[in-house]
Amino acid sequence: MAAKTILEKLGILADAAKYDASCASSGTTKKSSLGGKGIGSTEGMGICHAYAPDGRCISLLKVLLTNHCIFDCHYCINRKSSNVERARFTPQEVVDLTLNFYRRNYIEGLFLSSGIVKSSNHTMEQMVEVARILREEHDFRGYIHLKTIPEADPQLAHQAGLYADRVSINVELPTDAGLTRLAPDKDARQIEGAMGQVTSDLAENKDARKRFRHAPRFAPAGQSTQMIVGADKASDADIVGKASRLYDSFKLRRVYYSAFSPIPDASAVLPLKRPPLIREHRLYQSDWLMRFYGYKPAEVMQATDADGNLPLDIDPKLAWALKFRESFPVDVNRASREQLLRVPGLGVKAVHKIVASRRHRTLRLDDVAKLTLSITKVRPFICAADWRPVTLTDRADLRSLLAPKTEQLELFTT
């Protein structure tokens, strides 16, 4: 069989990397490099787009070192029993691709993951070598995100953090039972032990940098993880509870959710179809409520139905408000910031502007309308100088009034 070209390998290994959702470049320190920075490209194999907190589009080369794997996780297209075309990069080939794409302003960084070939330590050594060559031999100052392998030696994960801006370890599934059933080669305690070691390394590095000005940085963008949604029977309440515990225990920068996608030659233990993509979206919204709106995990779980799942027709913030109508309406001129953050339709920025504006004048409904995309959604839950919802908040059909209207689009319209 003829050896594959670099482009052929890139086509295989970039496509194999698309199932990893935890590809984002936010949170790292800014770096400068000779020649300036590019914004990115809209095409090209392996180029994915993420967004920084300031809205900038960041393009990353997202690729696997190899899709060979000694593990047999049922949900993974690259499992050892899968009938897929295999390919493998050398560390130098990944380095060359990264530098060539970077010089052409196609990308601003690298996201590197891998199947496990030979052993966890061997694979992790190869990934660390990619980052080492880029940083030490080429003085590469772009963004690097390495997906580390929990079964590898902790010292290798530590080396990865010294070269990478962010490291991540996938917990894969929300429950230990689901992981045991669908990924028999993986161990939940081992995964969390590896995450705990990274957390410890981050804390030690933070302390070292306070005491020693030139101490090397360790994963300045922190660590993240990913959970697959819909591959097992875990409910949204299970997922929210797991995410909350991970945030608290390991100080994660992000938890990513990836809706299970049916794969070729799928195992019989997997569902036949993927969950609705809106379910993934609702989980991200619930994640936002815990991280930025002051909701406790138990409160987000209160928005779920009898099966522990978030409603698909409305967002979790509105679902919570409808269940706890006694908490509303709140007076936009007197309510605390925490109370205003509970109002459906009011975001963090809108609440900040309300609190700042009411110091100078009494707010009317029109003033609030200028700060939100849908005053219709806000009206039942607030009072203003010229507005009280009276019985609107208690209407039995309030949910149907506020739920987004679904519309069947036509393929051919004039």
TrEMBL record:
Entry-linked SUPFAM superfamilies: Radical SAM enzymes, RuvA domain 2-like
Gene3D superfamilies hit by this protein: Aldolase class I, Photosystem II 12 kDa extrinsic protein
Coiled-coil regions listed: none
Cofactor(s) needed: [4Fe-4S] cluster
Alphabetical UniProt keywords: Iron, Iron-sulfur, Metal-binding, S-adenosyl-L-methionine
InterPro entries hit by this protein: Aldolase_TIM, DNA_rSAM_put, Elp3/MiaA/NifB-like_rSAM, Endo/Exo/Phosphatase_dom_1, rSAM, rSAM_sf, RuvA_2-like
Molecular function, one GO term: iron-sulfur cluster binding
Metal-binding recorded as keyword: yes
Domain Elp3/MiaA/NifB-like radical SAM core residues, every copy: 59-286
Protein name as it appears in the record: Putative DNA modification/repair radical SAM protein
Organism: Qipengyuania marisflavi
